[in-house]
């Protein structure tokens, strides 16, 4: 690729010796020999495989030394490429067979035996050249008169012009013969880099110093060189003269490259990637990587650059122990980033997770149960292995390893307090297998649960429940009658009006606040309400993005006559103030500091216009939790709709949520007590973690 003359002059220096590099005019490659003869040479369809070493049948020509020289291949007088000339020095390996004893004592030599000495030694010499991202192979046929051959003697050299390479590139050269009689020669050389580009660090800042002449105008671009996809531009400027570009250390990635070119018509761009081996860049890459599990059986690894990593399935048993890897890996080669891949599953299970490791170090892990409120199941995983002759064997995955199941009954201890007695025969276990998880050519994964034991427990629980209800009916007839009357009222109200939809929005500040929101949502589901919250829709949220997910849920909720509930917290209040004060800074803060599942941050761009234009009353309701916030902390704009304190104002809150179909005050009070009992323990736990033992009366956590 032609390189502007000013770049070559900067890179090669200004000394007369360097600037007097030999110029080769034209694009043609050439080869010459001295004093050996060159038959012909090939380029293009040459197979670059050395093959195995074979024994020499006699004297053969082999390469003994590689020598390189920098030259310029020029298409015009000032439009040249840096090129590498390679010289291969050849010598004779092996020797002629000695004459037999009778020839030594005067017997006339056979003329046919002398014929090889009058022929030529020929060799096919392969020259392989690699300079990322290009590679070439050249096949050279050389010959030398056999009469001039002496074992171990140098017979001359072959010179090839030439292999093009970029400034600053590392080139690797190999040479060997076909067939190969000895170990191939190899040579590595670092070509001159661009001395006008210097990278230095000072604390958290990284400086790109470009030292060019005052009048030189050039373009500069920073981009991510993604091997598995097109380059992704990041920063571009047209500059003049010396410049210093400042980057933060968090901006560094291994694939971050710098491209420069003169601002001239049809100019050629030169690139350099200085952070490929930088440890900070590799740490930043893993911090930016995101692992997602997508419905129904997809997964995706997003990262700015390609990753040298391995992905595996693992089994997470209850109890908090390490996730046990299941072999073989999902992909033997490197994981493809920024592309949705499919898990080899026939059915999903909440205990299954995906791990991504690099150099045997766990970097990322995502589990199926994390996208919902489902808990880990106390199930047992059986691993079925099939041999080459379809021989099958089973083992039970335990924390200590995989316990083989022999032909006789085996005892396997699960994560619970009891043990299971299993037989290694698949036919004996077939009635207890719940479903097949994973199928590969030679192995399978099965989840086992004692079905008979579970049905017995279910029947026992039903009998106990019936006994308790019967006793309550005998001892508290009046209370039971009142309860039946209230239940009848609920059924009538439900027949008159269907359950109202409610969309909960909150700022995901920490796991404790998320648990509190989850407790509220679960309690509201016990009422005639259709509750939607992002905690229960993580997969859809990850697949669609927070903004698109909120748009769809908000439109559906309002079309059905539902209500959007804004749950205010200190973080949510701060975010609202940022949006109200400066829309530009708020947009940045909504996309960066908050997590990928934070629908509240993404929804502010749609929620605020409803309040500013007076469309919020009847469609929105506000709420905050006692002890975490007080009513004065809620921004004035949002007080145009009812704002309730929970759980102290739960009856009014529930009445507003249920709308015209809400029951009477007595029934609302009963429901408020049920919700409060479900909510208060989680709220107390959060307040205690925040250092507020006083509970609802002990102050606020909004910093005001």
Task: Describe the fold and architecture.
Keywords: Cell membrane, Disulfide bond, Glycoprotein, Inflammatory response, Membrane, Receptor, Signal, Transmembrane, Transmembrane helix. The chain crosses the membrane at residues 455-475. It is a single-pass type I membrane protein. Residues 1-20 form the signal peptide. It is a single chain. By secondary structure, the chain is an alpha+beta fold. Helix content is 27%, strand content 35%. Residues 1-6, 13-19, 102-113, 411-443, 449-454, 583-593 and 693-700 have low confidence and may be disordered.
Provide a quick synopsis of the model.
With 704 residues, the chain is an alpha+beta fold. The longest helix is centred in the middle third of the chain and has 25 residues, at 451-475.
Q: Determine the mean pLDDT.
A: 75
In helices, the fraction of residues equals: 25-40%
Given the C-alpha coordinates, what overall shape results?
A: elongated
Structural class: alpha+beta
**Number of helical segments?**
16
Counting DSSP E segments of at least 2 residues, the number of strands comes to: 37
Supply Rg.
38 Å
- Distance between the amino and carboxyl termini: 64 Å
Q: What proportion of the residues form beta strands (DSSP E)?
A: 35-45%
- What summary fits the major beta sheet? 6 strands, mixed
Q: Poorly predicted ranges (pLDDT <50, ≥5 residues)? A: 1-6, 13-19, 102-113, 411-443, 449-454, 583-593, 693-700
